[in-house]
Amino acid sequence: MSMPVFAQNAAVVNGTAIPSARVDAMIASLPQGAQGDSPQIRQAIRDELINREVLLQAATKDGLTKDPLIQQQMAIASQTVVIRAYLEKYIAAHPASDAQLHAQYDEIAAKMKAQSSGEEYHLHHILVDNEQQAKDLIAKIKGGASFEDLAKQYSKDPGSAKNGGDLPWSPADAYVPEFAKAAEALKQGQITDTPVHTQFGWHIIRLDGERAATAPALPPFESVKSQLAQEAQKQTVQDLESKLRGQAKIQ
Protein backbone atom coordinates (compact mmCIF):
# COMPACT_ATOMS: atom_id res chain seq x y z
CA MET A 1 0.00 0.00 0.00
CA SER A 2 1.47 3.36 -0.99
CA MET A 3 2.05 6.13 1.54
CA PRO A 4 -0.35 9.09 1.53
CA VAL A 5 0.71 11.89 -0.79
CA PHE A 6 1.17 14.33 2.09
CA ALA A 7 3.60 11.90 3.79
CA GLN A 8 5.61 11.32 0.64
CA ASN A 9 5.65 14.95 -0.46
CA ALA A 10 6.06 18.24 1.32
CA ALA A 11 3.95 19.92 -1.37
CA VAL A 12 2.80 19.63 -4.96
CA VAL A 13 3.23 22.73 -7.13
CA ASN A 14 1.39 22.81 -10.46
CA GLY A 15 1.48 19.02 -10.48
CA THR A 16 5.20 18.77 -9.59
CA ALA A 17 5.88 17.01 -6.28
CA ILE A 18 8.38 18.31 -3.74
CA PRO A 19 9.46 15.18 -1.82
CA SER A 20 9.49 15.30 1.97
CA ALA A 21 13.00 13.86 1.73
CA ARG A 22 14.09 17.18 0.28
CA VAL A 23 13.03 18.90 3.49
CA ASP A 24 15.17 16.39 5.40
CA ALA A 25 18.12 17.16 3.10
CA MET A 26 17.69 20.90 3.66
CA ILE A 27 17.67 20.40 7.44
CA ALA A 28 20.83 18.29 7.20
CA SER A 29 22.54 21.04 5.18
CA LEU A 30 21.93 23.75 7.76
CA PRO A 31 25.13 25.25 9.27
CA GLN A 32 26.58 23.57 12.35
CA GLY A 33 24.78 24.83 15.43
CA ALA A 34 21.70 25.88 13.43
CA GLN A 35 20.49 22.33 12.83
CA GLY A 36 17.29 21.24 14.43
CA ASP A 37 13.98 19.69 13.62
CA SER A 38 10.73 21.28 14.63
CA PRO A 39 7.38 21.97 12.96
CA GLN A 40 8.37 25.62 12.62
CA ILE A 41 11.66 24.79 10.87
CA ARG A 42 9.96 22.28 8.59
CA GLN A 43 7.30 24.80 7.64
CA ALA A 44 9.93 27.47 6.88
CA ILE A 45 11.86 25.02 4.70
CA ARG A 46 8.67 23.88 2.98
CA ASP A 47 7.89 27.51 2.14
CA GLU A 48 11.42 27.99 0.79
CA LEU A 49 11.17 24.87 -1.38
CA ILE A 50 7.82 26.04 -2.75
CA ASN A 51 9.38 29.41 -3.61
CA ARG A 52 12.23 27.63 -5.36
CA GLU A 53 9.87 25.39 -7.31
CA VAL A 54 7.70 28.23 -8.64
CA LEU A 55 10.84 30.14 -9.64
CA LEU A 56 12.31 27.06 -11.33
CA GLN A 57 9.10 26.48 -13.24
CA ALA A 58 9.13 30.11 -14.37
CA ALA A 59 12.79 29.86 -15.44
CA THR A 60 12.08 26.62 -17.32
CA LYS A 61 9.12 28.20 -19.09
CA ASP A 62 11.46 31.06 -20.04
CA GLY A 63 13.80 28.52 -21.67
CA LEU A 64 16.75 29.02 -19.32
CA THR A 65 17.24 25.32 -18.62
CA LYS A 66 17.99 24.86 -22.34
CA ASP A 67 20.65 27.58 -22.36
CA PRO A 68 24.07 25.86 -22.90
CA LEU A 69 25.85 28.08 -20.38
CA ILE A 70 23.18 27.43 -17.73
CA GLN A 71 23.38 23.70 -18.43
CA GLN A 72 27.13 23.75 -17.84
CA GLN A 73 26.69 25.68 -14.59
CA MET A 74 24.09 23.12 -13.48
CA ALA A 75 26.55 20.33 -14.27
CA ILE A 76 29.27 22.03 -12.22
CA ALA A 77 26.87 22.48 -9.29
CA SER A 78 25.95 18.81 -9.49
CA GLN A 79 29.64 17.84 -9.53
CA THR A 80 30.29 20.01 -6.48
CA VAL A 81 27.64 18.24 -4.40
CA VAL A 82 28.88 14.76 -5.28
CA ILE A 83 32.57 15.62 -4.89
CA ARG A 84 32.00 17.26 -1.49
CA ALA A 85 30.16 14.17 -0.26
CA TYR A 86 32.93 11.90 -1.56
CA LEU A 87 35.69 13.92 0.08
CA GLU A 88 33.84 14.06 3.40
CA LYS A 89 33.48 10.29 3.31
CA TYR A 90 37.15 9.80 2.35
CA ILE A 91 38.43 12.15 5.04
CA ALA A 92 36.29 10.44 7.67
CA ALA A 93 37.84 7.10 6.64
CA HIS A 94 41.40 8.50 6.68
CA PRO A 95 41.69 10.69 9.80
CA ALA A 96 45.05 12.04 10.90
CA SER A 97 46.33 10.27 14.00
CA ASP A 98 47.53 12.11 17.09
CA ALA A 99 51.02 10.90 16.24
CA GLN A 100 50.81 12.55 12.80
CA LEU A 101 49.50 15.79 14.29
CA HIS A 102 52.27 15.81 16.93
CA ALA A 103 54.85 15.27 14.17
CA GLN A 104 53.35 18.19 12.23
CA TYR A 105 53.46 20.34 15.39
CA ASP A 106 57.12 19.44 16.01
CA GLU A 107 57.99 20.26 12.38
CA ILE A 108 56.45 23.72 12.69
CA ALA A 109 58.29 24.31 15.96
CA ALA A 110 61.58 23.30 14.33
CA LYS A 111 61.01 25.64 11.37
CA MET A 112 60.19 28.54 13.70
CA LYS A 113 63.38 27.89 15.67
CA ALA A 114 65.47 27.75 12.50
CA GLN A 115 63.96 30.96 11.16
CA SER A 116 64.67 32.77 14.40
CA SER A 117 68.38 31.92 14.46
CA GLY A 118 70.77 34.86 14.19
CA GLU A 119 70.69 38.30 15.75
CA GLU A 120 68.00 40.81 16.59
CA TYR A 121 68.63 44.54 16.66
CA HIS A 122 67.11 47.39 18.63
CA LEU A 123 67.37 50.50 16.49
CA HIS A 124 66.35 54.13 16.33
CA HIS A 125 66.13 55.90 13.00
CA ILE A 126 65.22 59.20 11.40
CA LEU A 127 63.82 59.27 7.87
CA VAL A 128 63.96 62.42 5.74
CA ASP A 129 63.39 63.23 2.09
CA ASN A 130 66.84 64.44 1.03
CA GLU A 131 70.48 63.65 1.67
CA GLN A 132 71.58 67.14 2.72
CA GLN A 133 68.95 67.35 5.45
CA ALA A 134 70.08 63.94 6.72
CA LYS A 135 73.72 65.14 6.78
CA ASP A 136 72.70 68.25 8.71
CA LEU A 137 70.86 66.15 11.30
CA ILE A 138 73.86 63.83 11.70
CA ALA A 139 76.03 66.88 12.42
CA LYS A 140 73.53 68.11 15.03
CA ILE A 141 73.42 64.70 16.74
CA LYS A 142 77.23 64.52 16.84
CA GLY A 143 77.19 68.04 18.24
CA GLY A 144 75.07 66.90 21.17
CA ALA A 145 71.47 67.26 19.96
CA SER A 146 68.97 64.64 21.09
CA PHE A 147 68.41 61.93 18.48
CA GLU A 148 64.90 61.34 19.86
CA ASP A 149 63.92 65.01 19.73
CA LEU A 150 65.13 65.36 16.15
CA ALA A 151 63.25 62.20 15.16
CA LYS A 152 60.01 63.57 16.61
CA GLN A 153 60.54 66.85 14.80
CA TYR A 154 61.84 65.76 11.39
CA SER A 155 61.31 62.03 10.77
CA LYS A 156 58.88 61.14 7.99
CA ASP A 157 58.28 57.62 9.37
CA PRO A 158 54.80 57.81 10.96
CA GLY A 159 55.25 54.56 12.83
CA SER A 160 58.34 55.55 14.79
CA ALA A 161 58.65 59.37 14.71
CA LYS A 162 56.28 59.93 17.62
CA ASN A 163 58.40 57.51 19.68
CA GLY A 164 61.65 59.31 18.94
CA GLY A 165 62.50 57.00 16.05
CA ASP A 166 62.30 53.84 18.20
CA LEU A 167 62.02 50.57 16.26
CA PRO A 168 61.10 47.27 17.96
CA TRP A 169 63.58 44.42 18.33
CA SER A 170 63.77 42.79 14.89
CA PRO A 171 66.15 40.66 12.79
CA ALA A 172 68.08 42.46 10.09
CA ASP A 173 66.07 40.81 7.31
CA ALA A 174 62.95 42.60 8.58
CA TYR A 175 64.34 45.70 6.85
CA VAL A 176 65.20 46.53 3.25
CA PRO A 177 68.77 45.38 2.34
CA GLU A 178 70.46 48.80 2.39
CA PHE A 179 69.03 49.59 5.81
CA ALA A 180 69.89 46.13 7.19
CA LYS A 181 73.49 46.26 5.95
CA ALA A 182 74.08 49.64 7.57
CA ALA A 183 72.51 48.54 10.87
CA GLU A 184 74.61 45.37 11.04
CA ALA A 185 77.81 47.42 10.62
CA LEU A 186 77.12 49.59 13.68
CA LYS A 187 78.42 49.15 17.20
CA GLN A 188 76.13 49.69 20.15
CA GLY A 189 75.38 53.39 20.65
CA GLN A 190 76.84 54.32 17.28
CA ILE A 191 74.98 56.19 14.52
CA THR A 192 75.59 56.00 10.79
CA ASP A 193 78.26 58.52 9.76
CA THR A 194 76.62 59.06 6.37
CA PRO A 195 72.94 58.91 5.45
CA VAL A 196 71.59 55.54 4.28
CA HIS A 197 69.58 55.72 1.06
CA THR A 198 66.62 53.35 0.54
CA GLN A 199 63.45 53.41 -1.51
CA PHE A 200 61.81 55.32 1.35
CA GLY A 201 64.30 58.17 1.55
CA TRP A 202 67.42 58.98 3.60
CA HIS A 203 67.94 57.36 7.00
CA ILE A 204 70.03 58.06 10.06
CA ILE A 205 70.32 54.88 12.10
CA ARG A 206 71.44 54.29 15.69
CA LEU A 207 72.10 50.85 17.17
CA ASP A 208 70.86 50.57 20.75
CA GLY A 209 71.13 46.85 21.35
CA GLU A 210 71.94 43.48 19.83
CA ARG A 211 70.96 40.01 21.05
CA ALA A 212 70.50 36.44 19.91
CA ALA A 213 67.10 36.01 18.30
CA THR A 214 64.59 33.93 20.22
CA ALA A 215 61.92 31.79 18.62
CA PRO A 216 58.34 32.99 19.22
CA ALA A 217 56.43 30.76 21.60
CA LEU A 218 54.31 28.16 19.85
CA PRO A 219 50.86 27.71 21.43
CA PRO A 220 50.30 24.43 23.29
CA PHE A 221 49.53 21.43 21.09
CA GLU A 222 45.95 21.03 22.31
CA SER A 223 45.08 24.64 21.50
CA VAL A 224 46.13 24.24 17.84
CA LYS A 225 45.20 20.58 17.36
CA SER A 226 41.99 21.37 15.44
CA GLN A 227 43.88 23.73 13.12
CA LEU A 228 46.55 21.08 12.54
CA ALA A 229 43.80 18.56 11.76
CA GLN A 230 42.35 20.92 9.15
CA GLU A 231 45.76 21.30 7.51
CA ALA A 232 46.17 17.52 7.58
CA GLN A 233 42.78 17.15 5.86
CA LYS A 234 43.88 19.54 3.11
CA GLN A 235 47.01 17.47 2.58
CA THR A 236 44.95 14.27 2.53
CA VAL A 237 42.77 15.72 -0.24
CA GLN A 238 45.82 16.92 -2.20
CA ASP A 239 47.41 13.47 -1.93
CA LEU A 240 44.17 11.83 -3.07
CA GLU A 241 43.88 14.16 -6.07
CA SER A 242 47.49 13.44 -7.06
CA LYS A 243 46.94 9.70 -6.71
CA LEU A 244 43.76 9.72 -8.81
CA ARG A 245 45.31 11.92 -11.50
CA GLY A 246 48.27 9.54 -11.64
CA GLN A 247 45.94 6.62 -12.21
CA ALA A 248 43.76 8.43 -14.77
CA LYS A 249 44.27 8.41 -18.53
CA ILE A 250 44.28 12.11 -19.41
CA GLN A 251 44.56 13.16 -23.06
Under CATH, the topology of the largest domain can be stated as Chitinase A, domain 3
CATH architecture of the largest domain: Roll
**Number of distinct helices:** 9
Intertermini distance: 52 Å
**What order do the helices and strands follow?**
HEEHHHHEHHEHEEH
Q: Could you tell me the mean pLDDT? A: 92
The class by helix and strand makeup works out as alpha+beta
Q: Class of the largest domain in CATH?
A: Alpha Beta
Name the shape in a single word.
elongated
Radius of gyration: 33 Å
Q: Catalogue the unreliable spans.
A: 1-5
How is the largest sheet built, in terms of strand order? 4-3-6-5
Explain the overall architecture.
The protein is α+β, with helices and mostly antiparallel strands. It folds into 3 domains: 1-63, no CATH class; 67-116 and 219-251, no CATH class; 118-212, Chitinase A, domain 3 (Roll), CATH 3.10.50. Helix content is 54%, strand content 16%. The protein contains 9 helices and 6 strands; from the N terminus they run αββααααβααβαββα. The chain has helices at 5-8, 20-28, 39-61, 68-93, 98-115, 131-142, 147-154, 177-184, 221-247; strands at 9-13, 16-19, 119-128, 166-171, 196-198, 201-212. The strands form 2 sheets. Strands 4-3-6-5 form a 4-stranded antiparallel β-sheet, sandwiched between helices. Strands 1-2 form a two-stranded antiparallel sheet. β5 and β6 (201-212) form a beta hairpin. α2 (20-28) crosses α3. The longest helix is centred in the C-terminal third of the chain and has 27 residues, at 221-247. It is elongated. The two termini are 52 Å apart. Mean pLDDT is 92; it is low at 1-5.
